[in-house]
Every structure is written in structure tokens, then in C-alpha cells.
Fold:
Amino acid sequence: MVLDGPPAPFRETRRFEGWVVELFVQTDTSIEYYWGVDAERRRTPLLRMVADGVILAGGDGAATAFQERAAALLAAGPAAPGAETVNYQRYLLTDLVDDLRGCTEPVELAYLAATLMLAASDFLLLAGNRWSARGKWLPRRIGEVDPDLPGRLVAGQRAVVVDGDREPLIAAVLAVLDFAGGPLQEGFVLSGKDPGRNSE
Structure:
């Protein structure tokens, strides 16, 4: 992460002395903007980069101030999700479990197992009002909530793909759903919008 003036902000990947180096070049105002964008998505790559990074230059105190600000925003956590948002994701996750139960086509089963593993992970972090992540960071984040869950989800996915056994993955996902009230189907209502009608 580099703080600089125009033409920042930009991101660039270079090779330096045999290493691939990603430069995230920001201004003092653009970095705050992109922290906000990440926070709305409930993900924190730039915040963590600054909060957990090692200061290589910037001994005037500006780098330390940005690092302290990033650490404070990270510790504050994301905005609490509304009950409607949590229930909608709970409903979608329950629906995916039902799809897995009823599926017989091996390729579709593999896709469903992968989708369920990721959806259950995201849901646990949403329902627990935690920062989410992608890639290698996602199991690290859910491991902070439940250290055994990443392994159970991966084992469940593998059982589906290798053996066609759905039960370990279903059990792991149902445990995640239980964290926020259990599966949700009957009684779920999601109001829609009709742009053709005037709102009063």
C-alpha cells in the first residue's frame, strides 16, 4: 500500500527482483473511500493490508496514523445486518440444502456442494455480524467463529463429490443454520416492488 498524489488511485502489478509485487496506490482521501466500499461488501482486504502491514516508509507519522485508523475500523466490525437480510440468506441456504438432497446428477452435485460450502461460510459470518472474506481468508474468518467448521465443510464437500454422500455436508450446513434460528422455508415472505404502481 502506497500513499501518494495523482495519478493515484490505481493498482499495478510488477515483478521486482523475482517477486510479484502488487502496488495499491491511494491518496489520503481515496483510501478512506475504498475502505468504505469494502465495508459495504463486508470484506476488508485493504483495511487488513494497512492494519496488519509493516510500515516500510513514512516516518513522519502519517503511515502510523493510517494504520491506527485502519485497525480501529477493523475492530469496530461491519454494520449490523437487518433481520430481513439475515432471514433472506437463511432461506436461500435452506433452499440449497433441499437442492442438494434432491439432486442426482454428479456434475450438478459437485457444483451444489461447492456453492453450499461457500454460502454456509458467508452466512455464518453475516449472522454473527463478522467481516467476511474470499479465497484463503474465508476459512480463516469462519475458523475464528468455529474452529472445526472449515474442516467439516471441506470434508462434507469431498464426501459429496467422491462418494455421493450428502449427509456430512448437510449436517455441517444445518449446524450453521442453527446458529441463526435453523432452516427457514414455510412462512417466509419477501415483499417485492412494482415499478408500474405509484407509491403513496
Remarks:
- The helical segments are 30-40, 45-52, 62-76, 83-102, 106-127, 137-145, 149-163, 167-178.
- The radius of gyration is 21 Å.
- The chain has two domains: 2-76, 83-178.
